[in-house]
């Protein structure tokens, strides 16, 4: 039997149900309204407000007008302004003098007993500001499929700060609602904010029955604005901490990626910088130091490689190095100092031995800090994050990372030659460090912040914003005003933006490594960004044509590493939209399994890979040029990189000067040596003294043919030989005075190995003198 409504016209209606409507399907709105009309308790009013002039369809408006005439307890409010969901509810309930308020979203439903049961309990407990029940989850079609786990939690004081309870079905006492000021209309989590304020008046009633059905669908506000909702949830909880007088003792930290919120004591532990060497750890450490974080008294001194300073605590560096070198065996192929060898890498299995030393070091640093925020930086820490976290569970980790291609380029420029001579180690090191980093951050998401180095360099202000937003950091005014941008050297940490062809090539050749990259990008608070948010690689990747190529780029290779991808990417990066470029990779009998895998994956993806028995560089170049479909040829070594002129300016020049046979330009050396080499106009006397023109030129195949191709008797200096022949037959060449390619200088390159063998070099010089009848000078004495 239904409870009758109060017959006294002077007595306020018991409960007002409010529905704010915005872009809700009519059938869902009808179900919501029907669920109110079907209530066992009848002393209710229903206020409905479309949130703005375009909030509902004409069909919906007509139906609402019709139902309002049929149901005297239903009132429609004007919809001439869009106020947002909680601005709309604030207005709705301001129009009611009922004893209790219930928010019913337009796509949800009430259980028929909801109002009666809730009012009965609240009437018996006049000090309780509100009541909430359990809640069903339902499919878009209205079928119930599970109880909302979040609504199964009974309310506990201050647990509401970290456990978001939907509080469905929520019935609010009007006097309490008015006392706290109602909904915060500008908030996207106005219901949560309101419940926090109400619970500060007294404990709510928990009714352990599902009296509300919540419709789960893709277009709901909670689904489409989840990250924004999370951020505002944190702000609401932090405001509650201040109101409750807890701010001096507690911080609220959180992770928007995982959605986890944690209430902790005000942080007094260390700030740890983690990330691979050359990933921006020094820049990040200098920024934190400027913000007042004590990075240590005994810092590694500045040097030519890092003139601004490493900010590395020498004591942590020493401990890590002793640990690494005592655990790993140095080998000709490995980097024990960075925690990696082919046989094994540092895994913390010896942690018991180092625990006492590490604990002592932590205690000394904590004592030195004298209640100030402190931390340390040594990239090796990244490999031992679980160890340090076990010793200091309250430590905060700020991770920083770079793309594998950017890091590889940075490591080529170190004074230490190891990674130039054994570049295959680079990606193994990148994978090791970044897999350890991302695994730790995924596990302890609220205690960690993750930044991309290039994005931090561009957006230095984001660091302070993240520290405040994520960890509730409370810096003083002077610290907030610190100009971190002045720490950035625009010439350091060059980067290739996302969307470049190198990214697609890495995905083809190193899919497992790129899974780590994707994990980093997914959870990063400041991820790497593409230029103008455009995917250049994707645009060029799908460009298909049967046109004859304008240029053929010939890349001979033997046992290549990832440098080959950089060579190919440089071609894709700079080819103009109105020209076709053919890339031919000639595999000169590679024997390494890792190299053969790279070549196989490129071939499977449509790249033209030609294979020959190991015959040397000259033979590989000749084979590629013979197979080329263009008259214009660019020979490119597999560890060098093209710049734009050969593919753009020089192509136009040679088209405008059809009698010219070859164009050559400047060279940018990088790696073991950095210089801008300018060969100047072709000069016969100079060419006899030294080879000033690299193989990397834009030349006509007819010139190559007239010269007899590259001399396959030569194991080095075959390009010099070709130019000497060309000079003798009257080669017509143009010098283009701009950097046209990048030349990687390595201590163990083919040329350097040749020059290191004086006997072989003098034999080659003698061969050239005899062949050309010229007084060719040796490059070394």
How is the topology of this model organized?
Elements: E1 15-21, H1 26-37, E2 44-50, H2 58-70, E3 74-76, H3 85-94, E4 100-103, E5 109-110, H4 114-124, E6 130-138, E7 144-147, E8 170-173, H5 174-180, H6 190-199, E9 205-215, H7 221-224, H8 226-243, E10 250-254, E11 261-265, E12 271-274, H9 281-290, H10 314-327, H11 351-369, E13 375-377, H12 385-391, E14 396-401, H13 404-412, H14 418-421, H15 424-443, E15 448-452, H16 453-458, H17 461-471, H18 477-480, H19 501-509, H20 511-523, H21 536-541, E16 551-557, H22 563-574, E17 581-588, H23 593-604, E18 608-612, H24 617-627, E19 632-635, E20 641-642, H25 644-647, H26 649-656, E21 662-671, E22 675-677, H27 684-689, E23 698-700, H28 701-706, H29 718-728, E24 733-745, H30 750-756, H31 758-772
Parallel strand pairs: 1-2, 1-4, 2-3, 6-9, 12-13, 12-14, 14-15, 16-17, 16-19, 17-18, 21-24
Antiparallel strand pairs: 4-8, 5-9, 6-7, 6-8, 10-11, 19-23, 20-24, 21-22, 21-23
Note the total helix count. Answer: 31
Radius of gyration: 35 Å
Assign an overall shape. Answer: elongated
Structural classification: alpha/beta
Distance between the termini: 112 Å
Indicate the percent of residues in helices.
25-40%
- On the 0 to 100 scale, the average pLDDT is 92
Biggest β-sheet strands, sense, barrel: 9 strands, mixed
How many E strands? 24
Ranges with pLDDT <50 over ≥5 residues? 1-9, 533-544
Strand residue content: 15-25%
Can you describe what's shown?
- The protein has 781 residues and is an alpha/beta fold.
- Helices cover 40% and strands 17% of the residues.
- Strands 1, 2, 3, 4, 5, 6, 7, 8 and 9 form a 9-stranded mixed sheet that branches. Strands 16, 17, 18, 19, 20, 21, 22, 23 and 24 form a 9-stranded mixed sheet that branches. It has a 4-stranded parallel sheet with strand order 13-12-14-15, sandwiched between helices.
- It is elongated.
- It starts with 14 loop residues before the first strand and ends in a 9-residue tail after the last helix.
- 43% of the residues are buried.
- The model is unreliable at 1-9 and 533-544 (pLDDT under 50).
């Amino acid at each position: 039997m239904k409870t009758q409504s109060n017959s006294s016209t002077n007595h306020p209606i018991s409960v007002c149900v409010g529905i704010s409507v915005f872009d809700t399907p009519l059938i869902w709105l009808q179900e919501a309204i029907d669920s109110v009309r079907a209530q066992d308790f009848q002393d209710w009013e229903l206020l409905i407000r479309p949130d703005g002039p375009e909030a509902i369809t004409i069909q919906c408006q007509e139906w609402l007008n019709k139902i309002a005439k049929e149901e005297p307890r239903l009132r429609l409010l004007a919809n001439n302004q869009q106020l947002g969901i909680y601005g709309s509810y604030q207005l709705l309930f301001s129009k009611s003098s009922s004893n209790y308020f219930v928010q019913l979203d337009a796509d949800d439903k009430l259980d028929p007993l909801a109002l009666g049961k809730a009012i009965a309990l609240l009437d018996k407990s006049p000090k309780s500001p509100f009541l909430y029940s359990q809640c069903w989850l339902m499919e878009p079609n209205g079928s119930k499929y599970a109880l909302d786990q979040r609504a199964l939690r009974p309310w506990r004081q201050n647990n509401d700060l970290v456990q978001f309870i939907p509080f469905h079905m929520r019935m609010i006492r009007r006097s309490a609602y008015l006392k706290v000021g109602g909904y915060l209309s500008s908030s996207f989590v106005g219901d949560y904010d309101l419940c926090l304020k109400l619970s500060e008046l007294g404990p709510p009633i928990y009714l352990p029955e599902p009296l509300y059905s919540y419709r789960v669908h893709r277009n709901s506000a909670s689904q489409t604005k989840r990250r924004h909702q999370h951020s505002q949830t944190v702000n609401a909880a932090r405001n509650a901490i201040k109101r409750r007088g807890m701010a001096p003792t507690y911080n609220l930290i959180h992770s928007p990626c995982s959605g986890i919120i944690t209430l902790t004591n005000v942080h007094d532990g260390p700030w740890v910088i983690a990330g691979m060497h050359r990933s921006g750890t020094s820049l990040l450490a200098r920024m934190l130091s400027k913000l007042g974080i004590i990075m240590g008294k005994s810092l590694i001194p500045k040097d030519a490689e890092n003139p601004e300073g490493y900010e590395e605590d020498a004591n942590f560096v020493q401990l890590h190095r002793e640990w690494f070198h005592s655990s790993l065996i140095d080998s000709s192929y490995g980097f024990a100092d960075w925690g990696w060898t082919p046989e094994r890498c540092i895994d913390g299995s010896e942690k018991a031995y180092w625990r006492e030393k590490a604990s002592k070091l932590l205690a000394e640093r904590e004592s030195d800090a004298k209640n100030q925020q402190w931390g340390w930086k040594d990239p090796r820490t990244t490999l031992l994050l679980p160890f340090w976290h076990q010793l200091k569970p309250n430590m905060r980790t700020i991770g920083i990372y770079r793309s594998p291609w950017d890091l590889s380029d940075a490591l080529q420029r170190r004074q230490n030659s190891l990674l130039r001579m054994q570049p295959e180690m680079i990606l193994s090191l990148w994978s090791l460090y970044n897999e350890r980093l991302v695994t730790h951050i995924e596990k302890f998401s609220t205690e960690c912040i993750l930044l991309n180095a290039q994005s931090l360099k561009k957006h230095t202000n984001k660091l302070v914003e993240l520290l405040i937003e994520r960890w509730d950091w409370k810096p003083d005014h002077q610290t907030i005003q610190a100009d971190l941008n002045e720490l950035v050297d625009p010439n350091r940490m060059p980067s290739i933006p996302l969307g470049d062809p190198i990214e697609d090539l890495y995905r083809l050749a190193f899919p497992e490594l790129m899974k780590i990259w994707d994990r980093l990008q997914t959870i990063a608070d400041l991820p790497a960004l593409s230029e103008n948010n455009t995917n250049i690689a994707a645009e060029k990747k799908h460009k298909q044509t049967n046109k004859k190529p304008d240029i053929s780029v010939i890349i001979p290779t033997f046992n290549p590493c990832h440098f080959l991808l950089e060579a190919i990417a440089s071609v894709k990066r700079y080819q103009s939209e109105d020209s076709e470029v053919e890339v031919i990779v000639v595999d000169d009998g590679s024997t390494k399994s890792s190299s053969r895998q790279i070549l196989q994956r490129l071939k499977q993806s449509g790249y033209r890979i030609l294979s020959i028995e190991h015959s040397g560089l000259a033979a590989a170049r000749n084979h590629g040029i013979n197979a080329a479909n263009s008259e214009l040829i660019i020979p490119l070594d597999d560890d060098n990189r093209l710049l734009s002129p050969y593919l753009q300016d020089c192509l136009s020049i040679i088209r405008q000067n059809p009698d010219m046979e070859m164009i050559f330009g400047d060279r940018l050396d990088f790696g073991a040596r950095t210089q801008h080499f300018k060969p100047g106009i072709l000069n016969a006397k100079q060419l006899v003294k030294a080879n000033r023109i690299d193989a990397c030129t834009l030349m006509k195949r007819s010139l190559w043919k007239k010269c007899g191709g590259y001399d396959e008797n030569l194991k080095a200096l075959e390009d010099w030989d070709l130019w000497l022949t060309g000079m003798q037959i009257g080669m017509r060449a143009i010098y283009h005075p701009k950097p046209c390619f990048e030349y990687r200088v390595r201590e163990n390159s083919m040329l350097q190995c040749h020059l290191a063998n004086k006997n072989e070099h003098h034999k080659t010089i003698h061969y050239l003198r005899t062949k050309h009848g010229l007084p060719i000078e040796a490059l070394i004495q």
